[in-house]
Amino acid sequence: MQEKPHRRGLARALVVLAALIAFFALHAIWLDRQLLNTDNWTTASSKLLDDPAIRSQTAGYLTDQLFSNIDVQAEIASVLPPRAQALAGPAANLLRERVEFRANKLLQRPKVQQLWEDANRRAHELLLRVLENKGDIVSTQGGVVTLDLRTLLEQLEAQTGVGGRVAARLPANAAQVTILKSDQLKTAQDAAKVLDGLPIVLVALSLLLFAAALLVSPGWRREAVRAYGIGLVVAGIAAFAVIAIAGDAIVNSLATTAAMEPAVRGVWDVYDTLLQQAAAACIFYGVVMVLGAWLAGHTTWAVSVRRFLAPYLRETALAYAAFAVLLLVVIAWWAPTPAMRNPVTAILLALLLTGGFEGLRRVTAREFPPGSPTEAVTAPSPTEPSPPAPPTPPAAPAAG
Fold this sequence. Notes:
The chain is mainly alpha-helical. It has helices spanning 5-35, 38-48, 52-69, 72-77, 88-106, 110-131, 137-141, 150-159, 164-169, 185-216, 221-254, 261-271, 273-295, 300-313, 316-334, 343-367, and strands spanning 145-148, 176-180.
């Protein structure tokens, strides 16, 4: 029975909607993994110091903190004779340049970078406790989350030759970077609750819409697979476009001076890494679906590939052994997407690929059954009439 046109139109609409939701799912996955995962937060933070521009800005911040909390000029003047008191100001300026230079070098040392990483990990763990409203941290800290860089400041003081007198006078709130303020707490907690489950909801909804398209229009299933694959490729490319556009907007809004632009750009380049990975994975999955739909199609190349594979696919043990090796190479060794490095999602992907492989095996077995002339491009359709037999030539007259 011929399928009604409106069912195919509905299937197309479902596939388009599924691809659109996949685009938004990419950003939800990125925000969830970057903001609510301590390991990802810490890893990204540790990469910041690899960027010379960010490291220079951090060194400048630590130097500013040291000189704003301690009157270095007065410290120098206290050890100079009365006639040399006028030299305290120029000496403090020279010392400031030396301190900033030493701070930049200090931030390149593995031990100091580990202190930076530990400070970021503690700050994020505290942030999660505040967002999840656990314990009495909200009441004791007033809902304020800070990144404590005092240890780095003390290391800088010890390395610049200023002396222990300055370190002893550093106030408790020196080098405290505020991450979350108390008046932002309720909004941040609500956003965290939504973001925590949003990626799963969006991914599941996209897949359900795609499955609905397959059910609504059975005669359009191969085309639906191809269309959804193309939609995933477009969603991934669009996400890369968003990265570029958003990066420019963020740099223009946050970089108050031209000197700050490289540092802000560097921070964005670090924190958009997970979004780039998600977008690349989306494109990869889309390409796999398009290739699968092409392999199941009616083009001469696709039929030729299936005809070549038919003898091997009919051997179940051989076919699945080769498929298992391919899965191990792609998922366990290559692992081109983050999902393949997660045991749960890797198993889910393996099951989906196995289902597609079994479908290809069955299609090929029906198309080229054992003993069939595999040289033929396609098997004749049972509904098509057989070509008429050539006319029998008239018998030769008998010799008289």
